[in-house]
Specification:
It contains 14 helices and no strands. The chain is an all-alpha fold.
Length: 275
Amino acid sequence: MDGKYTGKTFVAEILAIALGILFLIPFYYVFSNSFKPFAEILTNTSALPKVWQFENYVNAFEKLNYIKAFTNSLIITVASNAVLVVFCSMAAYMLVRTKQKISNVIFLTFVAAMIIPFQSIMIPLIKTAKDFGLLNSIWGLVFMYLGFGSGMTIFLYHGFIKGIPLELEEAAIIDGCSRLGVFWRIVFPLLKPITVTVIILNSLWIWNDFLLPSLVLQDPELRTIPLATFFFFGQYTKQWDLALAALVMGIVPLLIFFFAMQKHIIKGITSGSIK
């Protein structure tokens, strides 16, 4: 009988719970050790803190220049998402609705670009960015995120747009709406599920990215949270007590955003892939 609770279901639930606990172990280590003195982290890593030392967060907040690093990360993440959503949604729409071979070639080119390792183009990228004056600039970094994020974003939008009935657009055109008006007034509002998914996935990537900002942003005033946290690890010393507190402060805003928006992820991804 469908829906009957069986032994296999029970075993699957136990395995799922065990797997969930396994994935939470690293978070436990980061969180618990962020409240310990440096000496206790080295001698008693697994246990809970003997005394919860909140001074770690105060000191990390000051040395991290958290407000500035948080503001930089927020500006980069929001601006990158904005340009990715605007340009990639329009690009995907034109690639779907333009029934020509060149559209398929362009789409496959974007998809193929997703498998190119960043390390293979890192040096030419920085050299080109220097020639165009994009280094040490938040907006230069946003422009690079547009390039690196376009492949996946267009792929997700492309699959979702194919499921939107063409008759809706034809009716709007008959009523005198322009092609641009059709997209923004008719199509784009229907893209809300996949747009939320795109924003969540790109935010997780951009907020936590370390390598690209470390190559582009050299000015200490432009450091993001991952970059600022890295400077707790010097050549001869590693300030684990402050670094772990900084990691928690960097993770919390993203966790809040993720849990607030996570219900849209599965809906958006499945709609984009199946349609």
